[in-house]
Amino acid sequence: MDDTPDPAQNLIRFGWEEWVALPDLGLPAMRAKVDTGARTSALHAFDIETFGPSSAPRVRFTVHPVPGRDDLVIPCSAKIVDRRTVTSSNGESELRYVIASTLRVGEESWRIELTLTDRSTMASRMLLGREALKDHITIVATDRFLLPQLSYDVYTTSHVRRAAPNRALRIAVMSREDNYSTRRLVEEGEKRGHTVEVIDTTRCYMAINAMAPEVHYDGKRLPRYDAVIPRIGASVTSYGTAVIRQFETIGTFCVNGSEGITASRDKLYAHQLMARHRIGMPNTAFAASPKDTDSLMRLVGTAPLIVKLLESTQGKGVVLAETKKAAQSVIDAFRGLKANFLVQDFVKEAAGEDIRCLVVGGRVVASMKRTGAEGDFRSNLHRGGSAKVVRITKEERETAVRAAKAFKLNLAGVDLLRSESGPKVLEVNSSPGLEGIETATKKNIAERLYEHIEGKVRPTPVRSRRNLTDS
Question: Start and end of every ATP-grasp domain (predicted)?
Answer without folding.
Answer: 271-454
